[in-house]
Structure formats: C-alpha cells, structure tokens
Design brief:
This protein has one domain (2-72). 53% of the residues lie in helices and 5% in strands. The chain contains three helices and two strands, in the order βααβα. A two-stranded parallel sheet has the order 1-2.
Length: 73
C-alpha cells in the first residue's frame, strides 16, 4: 500500500491549528480525527507500506520515524 502526501499542512490540514485560538476543544477533535484517518489507512496495509511526503513530514509520522531509526540501529 502507498500513502502519498503525508506532509505537514496536509495531514492534518493547516486549518486545524487555526482552531487553537478560538476553539481548543474543536482543534483537539479535528487533530484526533486526522490522526485516526491516517491510522486506519496505515493499518490496512497487509504486505508492505510506503508513506511519502513533500517538504516536511506530518507531525503524525514522527513516532514512526523514531521507531524506524531505533530498529535500524
């Protein structure tokens, strides 16, 4: 499975952070929703998974990057 475009500002959408100033509970819900959608996509991979991004990777990928680095050392 290939999941493309998992860049910061796309996953989650940049507009989610705009809720920080006006409605923090909505921001929290929207972040959880975006994280959940990515989780569902990732867990559907059966044999192989490739995730790509352009620019900076999504903040949701940082734990995966740390795990991959630890595994390769």
């Amino acid at each position: 499975m290939i999941i493309a475009g998992v860049s910061e500002c796309l996953v989650p959408w940049v507009s989610v952070d705009q809720w920080e100033r006006t409605d923090r509970s909505r921001r929290k819900r929207e972040l959880q929703r975006a994280r959940s959608l990515l989780f569902v996509a990732v867990t559907r991979a059966r044999d192989a998974l490739a995730i790509s991004w352009n620019g900076e990777p999504s903040r949701f990928l940082k734990p995966l990057q740390s795990a991959a680095t630890d595994r390769n050392q």
